[in-house]
Every structure is written in C-alpha cells, then in structure tokens.
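COMPLEX REQUEST
Ligand: tryptophanyl-5'AMP
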Amino acid sequence: MDAQWRAPPSYHWPMTRVFSGIQPSGALHVGNYLGALRQWAVDQHDADCFYCVVDLHGLTTDHEPAELRRRTLETAIGLLASGLDPDVCTIFVQSHVHEHSELAWLLECTATIGELRRMTQFKDKSAGLESVRAGLMTYPVLMAADIVLYDTDRVPVGDDQRQHIELTRDLAVRFNSRYGATFVVPEPSIPTVGARVMDLQHPERKMSKSVDSPLGTVNVLDSPDEIAQKVRKAVTDTSAKMAYDPDAQPGLANLIELLAASTSRTIDDIVATYPNYGSLKADVVEALTEVLRPVKARHEELRGDPSAIAQLLEKGAAKASSVASVTLRRAQQAIGLLPPGVI
Ligand code: TYM
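STATUS: Structure written out below.
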C-alpha cells in the first residue's frame, strides 16, 4: 500500500463492503454466472453487498432505447434468479442513483486520457470503429465511481475486469493524495476457476453477451438440449492428448475449466480421469445442466411479476443512494466545490 495513503474512517465497520455490477447488454451466460454472479450470492451472506445493473454503461455503444429498458429489467430478474436475496443484499439500477454520474465527473478530472486509452477493453471495443463515443473511453471512470461510492473493500468480478479495478485503485489513491483521505481503495476478488470462460466456438476469445456467437455461448436459461448441442459442437483441438494447456489447446482447456468450475473437482483430477474428449463433453453437459437448474427454476417463478421487481429495485436505489450521497458529499468537499447555501 502506498506510503501516502491512509484509509479514511470506515462507515460500515465491522462488515466488509462488497460492490459489483453487470451490464444489461444481453442474456446472462455461464461466464457471468461462474465468473461473478455465483460469488455474489455467496458474498451476500457475510458482507454488506451492493449489486448494480449498470445501464449507463450500456450507452457507450449502439443501443435501442426500448431494448435497453427491457434488458435492464431482465438482467435484474437474472440477478435474483442467480440467488441474490433482496432482503440480504442491495440490488439496484445504476441510473436510479444520480451520484454515480456526478462522482464520475470528479474522477474524469482525476484520470488522464493516456491511461484511459491504454485500457485493453477500450482498445478492443473501439478497434475498427469510424466514430468512437467519448463514453466508451471514460467507461472505466464511471466504473471507478460505481465502486468507490460505496466505500467498497472488495469487488467480485471475472478476470476481464482486472485492469479496470487496477485503474479504480489508481484513481482512488491519486484523489486521496491530492485532496486528502476520501475513498477506500478496493481489492478485486477473482475466482481461481471460471474467471475467464471462453467462447465454445472461438476458444481464443472470452464468452460474451454482446458477441454474435449463438453456438459459442451457453446462456443461463438454455434448455438441457441446447446446452448439450452447444457443448457437443464445441471446438476442440487436432491433438487428442488430454492435457490442460490454455495456450496450445484452448478449446479443451475451456471444457476442463467449465467442468472444474461447475463441480468441486480439480483440474488435475479431471485431466487424469478422462480417456477422450467425448466422455469429457458428456460430463460437462451434465455439470452445466445441474449448476444452472436452480437458476432457471427461480427465473421461471420471478418473471411473472415485473412490478414486484420494479418495487424492490426502487427500494434498493433508496438504500444505495443513502450511502452514495454521503461519499459524494465528502468527495465534493475534498475537491473544493462550494456547498450550496454555505459561505
Ligand atoms: P459484464 O456485464 O461484462 O459482466 C458481468 C460480470 O461477469 C464477468 N464475466 C465473465 N466471467 C468469466 N468468463 C466470462 N466469459 C465472463 N464474461 C463476463 C465479468 O468479469 C463481470 O464480473 N464493466 C463491467 C460492469 C461494471 C462493474 C462496475 C463491475 C460496471 N461497473 C463496478 C464491477 C464493479 C462489465 O462490463 O461486466
């Protein structure tokens, strides 16, 4: 930890504060579930957790307004179906808590264009685009605001968010050293298996909500037949050797990792057990079907009552705002904004 950094008083001691977010950019897939959501459901029982559907982040690339609204609600239902309990954790929509956008501006004035241009996701998503929205570049600053607003200690995410959390830490430390102790500096929490689930058809790239690869993506709501079809057609390698080698045999490594992440088996045990790809694929189908079964069942119950979901999101936003407003005020004061009505 930097010498100049001293943690500001904790407002939530003795409980650890956890924050994480998900974009409403498409159907939830097993990468989201195994890499993040499953951990969120575990964390809610021993930490003070805030989970957010980050709809403002959904504006950084082309979108259809009605579709964004539908997906925001659908993603919130997906979070509940993944086991989040609104009586135990706080679930809300980012745009319902205006402090996110306001703090993002203070952090935009802390970040540099150089460090934002260097973000891998910005480079990937902007590559080949004729015109790039400014929001695509400042995306990780809004993400940093999401996190530090809640005095967050720990951020459970998949591996693809590692660099963004690193930037969040840099911005929090920079702000604190310029303006005095204001933000808690968060730690990422990344699972040891399932942190980077790859596309079944293109195992060199991660499974993604927005990539058009219907056969490569196992969605949380897929039927057992769909799961079986996708896993059976998963691209493997020309070598028939059973080994876990993500560089040389990425397709096989992905299947092994999917099996390890959805059972309690280790990668070594899996490599030693299977004589060929066929029997491995059959067990991956079974394991994924089992791990997703309760999520699908809960989704079936929840989707019939969207007004109940809207109500709990409203309650979640009120609770989130009560925490976020205190942090925002602290940051505004530290950076030198004149409070209204005070001379
Ligand atoms: P998003 O919506 O892409 O993904 C949500 C969560 O799922 C994880 N994930 C994966 N894990 C393993 N394998 C995969 N193929 C895979 N694909 C996605 C992601 O790592 C993430 O944890 N920028 C974030 C949303 C965000 C956020 C935040 C996250 C906005 N503000 C603050 C944490 C804290 C994103 O686009 O996640």
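REMARKS: The chain is about 50% helix and 5% strand. The pocket of tryptophanyl-5'AMP is lined by residues 19-23, 31-32, 35-36, 54, 57, 143, 146-147, 155, 157-158, 160-161, 195-197, 206-207 (CB under 6 Å).
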